[in-house]
Amino acid sequence: MAEVLSKTNLVSSSWLHNRQRQSISFFPKSCKFNNKSPASCSLKLKSKASSFSFSSNSGFYGKSVVLQQDEAMPRRGISLSRASVTSSQTTLRIGKAQKWWEKGLQPNMKEVNSAQDLVDSLLNAGDKLVVVDFFSPGCGGCRALHPKICQFAEMNPDVEFLQVNYEVHKSMCYSLNVHVLPFFRFYRGAHGRLCSFSCTNATIKKFKDALTKHTTDRCSIAPTKGLEEKELLALSANKDLNFSYTPKPVEFEPVPAEPVSVPQLEPSHSTKESISTKTLMFPRVSEDKTLVASGR
Hints:
Pfam families: Thioredoxin (PF00085). The protein is α/β, with parallel strands linked by helices. Among the domains are: 2-68, no CATH class; 101-237, Glutaredoxin.
């Protein structure tokens, strides 16, 4: 029993040394000892100091001490409630930053994903006016002009605006001969490409004039043209693009033959004289023959 008390004194002394930091004390919950099974003692954690109670017949006898933590009593300053952790996670979430070319987009504005998407968008537009906007994320002029382009798209809902990111589709822009930014191309119906130009925020009047000129009502009977034939061939020849194009066979229309009128040549004065002399000589020969015949 003295040995047991000495060991428990060591435990209590270590507890007193760390009491200010942990505020947790140990005391044995139950110690059992009998002749059949080895002695065992279990200790329970509590937030407050308590007295030790042992049975008179129990002892450690150099055996291991089993420590059990009471989960119903969380340790101070360490465990947090689930509600507080959840709230802190929700408040620390930061939304994804929106890119400048994605701000202010209208329903009639669309970003082109590939060369095939550009070709199909132009062909499916019909008689609508299509404005292709070539831009780059690192272009300061493109960024300054973007809010005004969004305003034009809002004021002209019948016009379709296609955005082509130069950094993503650099190879396609090379095939379309786009070498300056910002750059715009206007397409419509059977007319195909109407105009192409580059403008900045300072020369925005050029864009306004082109938009006013080509938004007039018109109807084309022929099918939609879209990109030009040489542009389609350049896209299909580019190995970096997954685009294929079969050239249309050239049909030769038969040209009706026009009647050729041959001018009638009038006889000259010399020909008239020769004809007249010939016609006058023949009667004389005939008269000589008649006279010879009668002389016989």
